[in-house]
Design brief:
Elements: H1 2-21, H2 40-60, H3 68-73, H4 79-99, H5 102-106, H6 120-149
Length: 150
């Protein structure tokens, strides 16, 4: 299961790289449309912060300190910085998950996230679903902006 999760996280984070890189105008990363709350740039920052915290810091003891508020409030972070952060997140997620053994996957996740304990494996599956959900939002955002401009 660990290898499957590593493959899925790497695949989806690489798709996120392609999506962010597909914005020809860097300023478009920070635009929103009516009915859409978060920009693609903020979603990318959120995904990086979420995975760096819940996988890197909590499971991998990387020392990463999350600023969730900034994930949604920062603007105009250079695209190159976002892409670099996603690359670093791929490395952290892969390295951390590689080190986990079956016993650790079946242990209770070290912090209670949704008001009840769950196994690390359960929470990792949730994090992959969360990544995929927001990845779809980024894709939709990019296509929506492209359709408004073209």
């Amino acid at each position: 299961m660990k290898e499957i999760l590593i493959t899925l996280f790497e695949k989806d984070l690489n798709i996120l790289i392609r999506e962010v890189d597909s914005y020809s105008e860097e300023s478009d990363l920070w635009k929103t449309a009516p009915g859409i709350t978060n920009s693609a740039g903020n979603l990318a920052l959120h995904l990086v912060g979420n995975l760096q915290h819940f996988i890197g810091a909590v499971l991998g003891d990387t020392g990463y300190v999350r600023n969730r508020e900034a994930e949604f409030s920062d603007r105009n972070v250079p695209k190159a910085k976002i892409l670099q952060d996603i690359q670093e997140t791929i490395a952290v997620v892969s390295a951390t998950l590689t080190k986990l053994n079956d016993e650790q996957l079946n242990d209770i996740y070290p912090i209670e996230v949704f008001g009840k304990p769950m196994t690390t494996l359960h929470f990792l599956v949730h994090l992959e679903g969360h990544l995929n959900y927001h990845l779809g939002q980024v894709n939709y955002h990019r296509r929506l902006l492209a359709s408004q401009m073209g």
